[in-house]
């Protein structure tokens, strides 16, 4: 099983890489039977269809890397030691979660939950290869363009009460309180996203996960941004079905934003 899929650009390369770490739905055969079957039928914490929202990117010269495994196998956007990214009382799942976002158990029994040996195996087998692939892509672009942007693409349910009681904003741009990207890039992203019809929040309630914080080193010419999107802006209200009409509005804004970021990179 391929751990991830890399979609190479159809147009000349640009200095932007898109990462989609949570749209995967596959389970390795050796552990698939460990999970509750009814939970596997609809993996509720999946960032459904996010990669479809960026299907225009290869025509822009952007490379996309998409994880194929479910985040219930390994969560690529968590700290490798499962150090919490937030300390405000919200439910925080680990890099090898044993519950969904609502605290529901995902394994058939406790003895099937990953122990320390299994956690380490998954890190070495599933987690670090994704990071190494991103590192390779970023280094290739840096050699060609000097500066490079990693855009980490996510979505979340309209409301998850274990994280916050209120519904989530339409879009949330995260850069760990402006530490993971050059101010010009952050401002360009904010201005572009605000030009659309969506409510935009900046670093609240999400500041960017481990991928953004790990790779975002503007002093080293690597700039990372995370965009979290409310699922109902591109899916039906039931958050199960892809809504083509809604999605097209999102895609148009995303394309505009990435084009503007590319222009900004040339002025840094």
Describe the 3D structure:
The protein has 268 residues and is of the alpha/beta class. It has one domain (4-265): Zn-dependent exopeptidases (Aminopeptidase, 3-Layer(aba) Sandwich), CATH 3.40.630.40. It is built from seven helices and seven strands, in the order ββαααβαββαβαβα. The chain has a seven-stranded mixed beta sheet with strand order 1-3-2-4-7-5-6, sandwiched between helices. Helix 5 (183-194) runs antiparallel to helix 7 (244-265). Pfam families: FGase. It comes from Siansivirga zeaxanthinifaciens CC-SAMT-1. This is N-formylglutamate deformylase.
Topology readout:
Blueprint: E1 4-7, E2 16-20, H1 29-32, H2 37-41, H3 50-53, E3 63-67, H4 116-145, E4 148-156, E5 171-174, H5 183-194, E6 200-202, H6 210-215, E7 222-230, H7 244-265
Parallel strand pairs: 2-3, 2-4, 4-7, 5-6
Antiparallel strand pairs: 1-3, 5-7
């Amino acid at each position: 099983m391929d751990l991830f899929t890399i979609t190479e650009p159809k147009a000349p390369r640009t200095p932007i890489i898109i990462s989609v770490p949570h749209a995967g739905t596959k389970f390795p055969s050796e552990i698939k039977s460990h999970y509750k079957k009814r939970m596997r039928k609809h993996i509720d914490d999946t960032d459904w269809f996010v990669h479809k929202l960026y299907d225009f990117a290869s025509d822009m010269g952007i490379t996309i890397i998409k994880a194929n495994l479910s985040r219930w196998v390994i969560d690529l956007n968590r700290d490798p030691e499962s150090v919490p990214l937030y300390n405000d009382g919200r439910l925080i799942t680990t890099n090898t979660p044993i519950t969904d976002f609502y605290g529901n158990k995902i394994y058939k029994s406790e003895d099937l939950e990953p122990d320390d040996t299994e956690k380490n195996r998954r890190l070495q087998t599933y987690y670090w290869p994704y990071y190494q692939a991103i590192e390779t892509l970023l280094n290739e672009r840096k050699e060609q363009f000097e500066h490079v942007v990693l855009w980490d693409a996510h979505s979340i349910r309209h409301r998850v009460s274990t994280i916050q009681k209120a519904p989530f904003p339409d879009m949330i741009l995260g850069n760990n309180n402006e530490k993971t990207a050059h101010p010009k890039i952050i401002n360009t992203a904010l201005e572009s996203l605000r030009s659309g019809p969506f409510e935009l929040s900046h670093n609240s309630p999400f500041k960017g996960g481990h991928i953004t914080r790990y790779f975002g080193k503007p002093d080293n010419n690597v700039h990372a941004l995370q965009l979290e999107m409310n699922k109902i802006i591109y899916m039906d209200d039931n958050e199960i079905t892809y809504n083509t009409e809604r999605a097209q509005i999102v895609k148009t804004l995303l394309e505009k934003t990435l084009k503007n970021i590319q222009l900004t990179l040339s002025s840094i």
